[in-house]
Amino acid sequence: GKNFAVCGPNGTGKSCIVDAIEFGLTGNISRLSGKGRGVVSVREHAPHVNSRNNPDKARVIITAIVSDSNKRVVIDRTVKDSNNPTVTPNDPSTLQILHQVANHPEFVLSRRELILYILATPGERSKEIQALLKLDKIEELRALFVKIANAHKKETAPLKTESKLASDNLIQALEITTLNPEEVLKAVNPRRAILNLPPLTALTATTSLRDGLETITNTPQTFRVPKAQAIIDIKSLSASIDSLHSTENIQSYQAIAKELGDFVLDPIANQNVSLENFLRSALQFLDESICPVCDTPWNLDDLKQVIENKLKNYDAVSKRRIELENKLVPIITSLQSLQNSISLIKTYKLTPTTSAEIQKLAEFEKQCVSKTQTLSAFFPVASSINILDHIHEIPQEITDAIVKLSASASAMPEPTVQDSARDFLTICQERLEVYRSAQRRLRQADEKAKLTDKISTTYAQVSNAILNDIYKQVEQQFSEFYRVINHDDEPGFSAQLLPSAGKLGFDVDFYGKGFFPPGAYHSEGHQDGMGLCLYLALMKHISGKGFTLAVLDDVLMSVDSGHRREVCALLSQYFPDTQFVLTTHDQVWLKHMKTVGLIGQNASIRFRTWNVNIGPTEWEQKSVWDEIDSDLQKDDVRSAAGLLRHFLEYIFGEACHRLRAPVEFRGDSQYQVGDLMPCAVLSLQNLYKEAIDAATSWGNTQLVQEITDRKNALASALTTAGYDQWQINGTIHFHEWDNLSKQDFAPVVEAFKKLIQNFNCPDCACLFEILPDRGHKKTVKCTCGSTNINLERKMQPDTPSIPVPQQGEVVGT
Fold first, then answer.
1. What is each CA distance from 303 to 46, 310, 701, 711, in whole angstroms?
2. pTM for this one?
3. Considering only CA atoms, which of 420, 373, 379, 411 is closest in space to residue 278?
4. Alpha-carbon torsion angle 554, 559, 563, 565, nearest 10
5. How many Å apart are CA 715 and CA 734, to the nearest integer?
6. By three-state DSSP, how is residue 549 classified?
7. pLDDT (tens digit per residue) in 194-218
8. Which end of the chain is more exposed for a tag (fewer CB within 10 A), N or C?
9. Distances 443 to 27, 152, 158, 436, 802 between C-alpha atoms, Å
């Protein structure tokens, strides 16, 4: 349909029109839903406050025309069952169109949403614009790929530690310093020679160091403790114990413990860390549309967004926590090395008398595992601090156990050369297999990490290339629209949309001085204009010719008067196929829309007030007279008089505008009844005189009589209304109404009611207006067309034409 405007002071209900259209078409009201709305919801707060317990009464009925087929559609939707509107006709094609509209609720735009495009952070702007472009899934998928890649990368860390321990154990068993095939063969082949086994020429992935050992003996070998290896492993354990309580390490533990103490004593950090840990855990359980904590129904995407927004606030604390976690890594590695040494010794049964010592080491190993888990988890921080304070304290029984085990190993009888070689090859093969298994798992994890990182990187590159192209088109269209609005002072304006991973920077030219964020130098009015231009550019890119409806809720409240006409021209010229529904509290704005033809003369509604019982009331004569009568019934002359004064200012202001009445100019546009009424009356009187002259020139005696009757009716109404009194001193006359009684004021109301009727068409009750609105006056018409008074006189045949002089030419009489 055609463009339409809703005008009225703040708080008179303009946005209710916006809410009704959005709810009728989508089943949702954006200002009552989404992130940051708290307990506010459409279900609870869309119904009228007096009937909020009966959502079935909260109803919107919309009649729409499908632009492609010119089909009329009626949509009836209630809050009680907002997802199931009654649609007539209820055919698949109509339902498909409504579904498409519901999936693009961005046809409604308010200033609070508009400014997000301009002043938001790059991350938030990217989300808002990508959501508008229906590209938010791209960002979600990018984030998911990054998450997967980071998870696989994180999985390699413990496997690297495991592989390093396996490597150290193998090096220790081989009695070499560097693990490579040459060194391994140098250590293995002499032992194989002792056992008369052929040397190994190469070390492959399947090579067995003890290959052929089984064939030189037919009797199964009973397990024997390898004395040399046991001594080496016990020395390694002792070295790990000594490292824990070295002076250098103790000082390091104390320093880290102090940092952890400072961190946990910070109330903000402590609270944020605890809450962050809770929120990150909560994200893992979000797989339904119900909050896992309070069982409250939520939109899952909205709930995730709320949690992620909160987590962003903890970035500084998170960075500090990561720094501390990294400082704990060497300590955790030392504990793991200690566990590894104990695990090796537990397999040895040196003597029957050492089983108690082995059991003590096993218990100590469990303690080390528990400490490792606590330090790795970081939480609770107090537990980590406690471990650091006491980690160097090795129980005496453990020290004694190591001494006894070492003595037992040294007291063991020396093995023969062949037995020593056999034990060497057996242990080295076992540890080689452990190392190979650890390496295999690490290699697989590393390949996954590289693959997922490649997928994440490739997806980001491809999607960024496509987004860059989209943003470049939008950027050019946006710049063009903004230049149209501000052609007088920024004809060379340009802008830059700067996408990066998960972000969208936005810089604009400032008079050729460089590119800056819009909030840096441009005024609020210019920022509002930018927001609208960016929105329009995005919508044009999204929908093209399908952009047929836009509801703009006070989006240009701060645009200066010098650019309002250009904004109207932009909407008219660039979007001729789009129906704009606009709300504004600025009457001048409304007149600009009418002047440039963005809206028709009667394509608007003006609200004057609002109350909780009946909602908005408009400047419509029937409701005004009813309200005045209601005040008089209650003997409230003051309220009735005030309402009549305001209505007269409105109605005669409109009459002056439509009848092109000359009114003394006021810069503040604060016109009172005494300023407007005489001008409106005089203009109508003069128009009747011109109309009588015109009708006489055409010989239309019937029309002469009709206009004369109207002129006389106007004169009679003026007399009844006390024309001579308010003409002499309008200010005193109008402001003395408050002192009248009900009986005195009722005739005044009736007199002005009849007077105003003279400015209205008797059929449609609309104000008369002169057409055209500029230039030579031709006719006086009403909306319905039943009143059509000609103002042009018939040219007489003998009237000589007067030549029009051309430039530089003098024409004589």
1. 21, 11, 77, 69
2. 0.56
3. 379
4. 20
5. 20
6. strand
7. 999 999 999 999 999 999 887 655 4
8. C
9. 53, 12, 13, 10, 101
